[in-house]
Each structure stands twice: as C-alpha cells, then as structure tokens.
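Q: What does the predicted 3D structure of Holliday junction branch migration complex subunit RuvA look like?
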Amino acid sequence: MIAQLTGTVLEKGDGFAVVDVNGVGYRVFLSDLALQALAPRGERATVRTFTHVSQDAIHLIGFAGEDEERVFHALVEVKGVGPRAALKILSGIAPRDLALAVSRGEVAKLTKVPGVGKKTAERLVVELKDKLQPLARAEAPGRPEKAAGGGAIEQLSQALLGLGYRPQQAEQAADALRDRAEGRPLDELLREALKLLRG
C-alpha cells in the first residue's frame, strides 16, 4: 500500500493530479479542495495517500491534510458511500464543517453538499456522529466574528484548517481577505487564500 508520495507535480486535471516520483508518474485522485491546496505544476509536493483496490483497478486517493484523510476513511465506512462519493462530498464541504454539521444533526445543511441526498445525510449523522465528534469539538470554541464578511471569513479559516494549515497561517490568510469577503462564495475565497499562502 502506498501511504505517501513526495515528488514534482506534473499535471493537474479534473479531480486528479500526476506526481512524478523519481521518474514514475503517479495519478492521484483528490477532492477539489485538496487539488486547490496542492502545490502548482512544476513544484515539489508531499501527498498523503490511500490505495484503493477494486476488482478492475487500483487507485491512489490523496488528501490535503490529516483532517481530510480522517473524514474520508469515516465516510467510506458508511453504507452506500464509496471512495468516489466520499471525494465528491469532500469537494463540496471542508472536513471540519462536515464534522460539525454531522455532530449537530444538520441534515438540511448536509443535503446541500453535492452527492448527498436526504437519506445519505441522515445516514451520515447516525453513523458518523460519534466518530467525527473529536474533530467537531476541536472546531466548536470558535472566535467572535469581526466586521463585514465575518461569517465567510470564519468559514474560510476553518476550511484552511481542514486542509492542514496551521491556525496562525489560516488566521492570517483569512484576515488578509476580510475586507473583500462579503458576498463572495467560499470556494472563490479559498482559492485566493491558497495563492496568498503559497506566496
């Protein structure tokens, strides 16, 4: 089983990246958030991976950080949620936000995530509430929202934490975008924050 790759990012595609490790190109499937967090083409990167073996293929699945990896493994244990569905879910919601929604039983919020219907959302709450409780509790204290766009900035900060960035890095990147956050979608803010963090 391949648990980690370190090499040069050769290519980024729709839901995957190719990482060159000593002349061998490994195709790694990633969530949209993890793909955005990955280093640009031509730069070196380290990616934690999970080797998924099915009847007709062997796939490498990569993660942006420990939180995403932990949530992915919890998701695939849920009946009816395979690796592809888990990646689709993680493309639509940050790991910590998912853990918090599950712990609070927010079925309506979960159904807004691509690939999650009402039955699946209810199943996630029932089967993952205890498993994701530690991650949800780690996020729960929160900080008071500040100024305009505070809610979006808080979500952005949590999304960056979920991708493996340190609290100080997440806070600085989020604060840098605070004045431009109001009314903008989270994925757009996240892309801009990732550019800032890469310098």
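A (community wiki): The structure tokens above were generated from the sequence. Residues 140-150 have pLDDT under 50 and may be disordered. The first strand starts at residue 4 and ends at 12.
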